[in-house]
Amino acid sequence: MIDDRGENVDTLIIGSGFAGATVARILAERGEKVKIIEKRPHIGGNCYDEYDEYGILVHKYGPHIFHTNDQDVFEFLSRFTSWYDYQHEVVGNVYGKIIPIPFNLNTLMIVFGEEKGQALKQELIDTYGENARVPILELQKSSSQGIQEVAQYVYENIFLKYTMKQWNQKPEEVDQSVTARVPVLISYDNRYFQDKYQGMPKDGYTKLFERMLDHENIDIELSKDAKEDLTFDFENHKIYYLNQEFKGKIIFTGAIDEFFDNRLGQLPYRSLRFDFEHYPQDYYQSKGVVNYTVSEDYTRITEFKYLTGQLCQGTTIIKEYPEVYKDNRQVPYYAILNPENIMMHQKYVDLMKPFENFYLLGRLAQYKYYNIDGIVKAAIDLTKQF
C-alpha cells in the first residue's frame, strides 16, 4: 500500500530489537518495502548500547552477551559485525568468598576442600556424567547423602536468596525454563556458557543494528507509538494503517497486552532498575559479572570493560535491582511464567488469530524467554513461512 506519507509499505514491523530488525533485513533483501515503527528514540531494543559521559561503552538496559551453537544465526549476524572474543565468566560473592558460577568442579573444591571435593566429584560424575548440566532442583532429588550436601549448599547459598530477589517467588514456584538456567556444571569449565560461538559485537550492538537496518527498502520511524497509526476492526477482521486498509504483513514484537490497553488483563513481568556508577581505577572487580547471591539488595554488578575489551581510563559498573513491573514507565524484562499468566497470554493470541497477516514475535509478544540467538533464529524461521 501507499500510505499518506507517500511511502510504499509491504510489511509493517513494530519494534526494532533483534526480532524486528532480523525480519526487516531478510524481507528487505527479498525486495519488500519494510516500515519499522519504534516507540523508543533509538533502534536496538534492550540491546541498545551507547558511550557514557566518561567514554565507556555501556548497555543501557543491562548486559547482553551473545552466545550460540547455531551456525546460521552466527553467520547471519556476522554479516553486520566482527566479534570481540569474549568468553563470559561469572563469579558469586557468598559472604565475601568469591566462587565460580555456575557451581562447577572448581567451585566444589573451593567450598568443600580438595579431599572431600574429589570424592564428591566422582560421585557426581558417576551419577550424572562428565560435563553434564544438572538443574539444582534435579540435584535435590538424589538419594545420595553427598550429592544432597552439594545440593543443599547450592540451594541455600547460590539459588534461594538470589532467586527470591530476582523473581519475588519461592524457587519451586519459578518456571522450569528459568530454574534450568541455574545448573550445577560437572566440569572445570568456568565459562558461563559452553556454546561454540561466543563474543561481543566489536563496535557494539548499536553499530550492528545500524548496519543491519541500513538498506534502501527499510524505513524507520522512531519515537512513535504504533497504536496511533493502527486500527483494528475486530468484527470484520481488518487492520487499518493510517486510515487505509492494510493487507500486508504486520510483525508485532512489543507487549501485546499493553498494545490493546490490557483489554483481556495485564500480563505480569519482572522489571529491573539499573544504577550506573563510575570509578577512576582501571577495574572495579575481578570479572565482568559478580552475582550477590546471599547479600545486598541488588542481584549483580556488571563491569562493561570486561565485556567489550575497551581500553581506557576509569571504569563504569551497573548494579541491578529487580522490581515489580507496574506500568509502562518501567521496562518489562521477564515474563512471569505460570499457568494463569500463560492462559491470559493465550487469550491475546486467540484475539489476534482471525487477523491472518498479524504475527507475534519476541519476548513480550510471545510472553516467553529468549536469548539473543533464540530470537534471531525465531525471526529467521518466521520469514521462511512467508
TrEMBL record:
The GO terms this record gives for MF are: flavin adenine dinucleotide binding; UDP-galactopyranose mutase activity
Which cofactors does the annotated protein need, by name?
Answer: FAD
| Pfam families linked to this entry | GLF, NAD_binding_8
- The UDP-galactopyranose mutase C-terminal domain is annotated at 158-369
Task: Provide a GO CC annotation, any one.
Answer: cytosol
Top-rank taxon, per record: Bacteria
Keywords attached to this Swiss-Prot or TrEMBL record, sorted alphabetically, are:
FAD, Flavoprotein, Isomerase
- Which InterPro entries does the record associate with it? UDP-GALP_mutase (IPR004379), UDP-GalPyranose_mutase_C (IPR015899)
Q: Which family does it belong to?
A: Belongs to the UDP-galactopyranose/dTDP-fucopyranose mutase family.
Report the protein name in the record.
UDP-galactopyranose mutase
Give the organism, scientific name: Longibaculum muris
